[in-house]
Amino acid sequence: MSGASVQKRPAGKSQVSDAFASGLSRAVTAAGGKGACADRLEVEPKTLGRWMAGDTMPELHLAAGALAIDKTALNDVLAIYGLTATPKVADAANDMALVGALSNSVTEFLRLIADGKRCHIDTAVLATLFRPLIPQMQSIVDEHDKRVAA
Prior knowledge:
By secondary structure, this protein is mostly helical.
């Protein structure tokens, strides 16, 4: 959703539903499939399918539950209003995992642009790699900013 204009008034149901379905698809992937995601959200797979198709919208507590599966699950909805979700606290125990993921991402980035071009397919691959890393890096920046402001 980057580059999209920021919504000045409440978004329509279909716009929010489409954005939610986009983020929910990442949660389904992270959970290991639609059935596993439905189990973790404690809903029926048919219900999850209706959310993903935009036929219905979940109650807020169920939509927020997707964050337990994928921390970026609601970012597409928040992006309508120019916002993003980031962890409140950087978890130092995850720093090495973050460094490893960044290293892998840089390696993949270099491989994808070895031909001197970045096509839309490369961009989609990179977005998938970078999306979960951005909130983790932002939480480190936020932690520093809080310390400096104190």
